[in-house]
Amino acid sequence: MSIDVATPGTLEDQLVLDGTTADTLFLQARTASTFADDEVTDETLQAIYALTRMGPTAMNIQPLRITWVRSAEARERLAAHMYDNNKPKTLAAPMTAILSFDGDWHELLATVFPPGAARKTMFDENEAIRTTMGSNNGHLQAGYFILAARAAGLAAGPMTGFDAAGVDADFHAESGYTSFMVVNLGKPSTAAGHPRLPRLEYDAATDTV
Ligand SMILES: Cc1cc2nc3c(=O)[nH]c(=O)nc-3n(C[C@H](O)[C@H](O)[C@H](O)COP(=O)(O)O)c2cc1C
Q: Which of 11, 42, 122, 142 has its CA 20 to 30 A from that of 72?
């Protein structure tokens, strides 16, 4: 167990998670570029989504859309849109997810937010607000997604280094979804990665008013 000591008590004393869970989700988990060869099953993908969808979004709009890239053909097609440093790891990953947001999330407002269903007409007329809310809440859900993958025993390798317009033309021509992140997934590799990069100290990143 590797929880750092924080003043005045240990970090562990402040958590309701056990140490293994805190390590799995946050403290030992690393962004991954390499993975074990094990297949990622559809059941695992469904478990990841079951957790992801429960994280909160504004008005419960849930704009995140996920395209699972499983076939070799689709993987080659996706890799063609990745920046060069991201191509090899995307080609080698057991599973990859394209994360997008649906700019027309308001079409499902009556389903996800019945008390505010009447507000749909307001959003019909305001694409700019729909895009801002879709993007912001989609990114929020992407954070839940990464932690959900870790909770399912996977390592995640999120990447924004890709041609999003190219991905959308290739994968989202019918849906109109807007991609914003590609995440490689797989069982953690035992290969040594680079040392952890520094995190900002509490006083550098927070203030109290
Ligand atoms: C939104 C996002 C975009 C990222 N894009 C890339 C990328 O395009 N290529 C890459 O190699 N790493 C990318 N990373 C990886 C980050 O550099 C990495 O998560 C960060 O340095 C923390 O690493 P650690 O989890 O191992 O401590 C991205 C991470 C996030 C969260």
A: 142
